[in-house]
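Example 3.2
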Amino acid sequence: MSEKGRKLYHALGSEIVCEVKTITDPLDGTSDMHNHTCHEILILKKGCLNFFTDNSGVEMERGDVVLIPKYVFHRGELTTPGIYDRIVINITEDVIEGASTPHFNLNKCFKPYNDKMIHTLHLDESELEEIDQLSTKLQENLFNTSPESVILAMAYLKIILVKLNKKYKRNDTQIPQDKMPDIVKRTFQYIDEHITGDISLNILEKEIHSNGTYISRCVKKISGLSISQYVIAKRITLACKLLRDGNTAYEACYQSGFKNYSNFSRTFTKQVGISPKQYQIEYRKGIVANI
């Protein structure tokens, strides 16, 4: 997989990934906009971060939590170079469903919000310390292959999810001031609504009523991607979903906005690392379930 492909289509090694991270590189902490087929929990321990989805943006500081539903494009932009400690947990929806009960759905806090704004939770110092300890234990047991570690990992994960869901259920969520520039929000909205049609800078200029160069610069600043890269990322993500849903490679090509199969196959392979047909085969085997 190409370096850009690794950034955009990060394949998780298992159904649960937990990383309690301390920054090691002054440039670490800023990524291009990407998405996953699993849910993600991001908890900030140290530093400040501008966090964007393709709908809104918030400023995060110590103790802030964002719960990112699967398929939602997102990006973190570190505003304190060299200061960025965080907890990142990725979990497939199936795992969370399996950990839930009929009366307590742990997926609840990941449901996309109707207003499309980022809703955050905030942990006080004691809550953050407790979640930090639980996450460290989760990470340790995920790296251990012993039978008891599998049980312990699920136990720690359930405790974390219960605590976050209880805060969510109590309406402890916050809606911070939106940091997403309006011009970028309108551009992303237009792209989403016309992803299978023609999208060009000339079209965006007319629809957004702004200079194309300025639109491009604003989109690059927020997403880390050029407009063409962002459109390709969206179309490849849609194609992956279509392939997972059982559509043929040819159907996925044209239904995701590509006009030429050869170009689609070449672009897909470059971005994802394998051909569309191979992707579908490996998905059915459970090999690339989290791309």
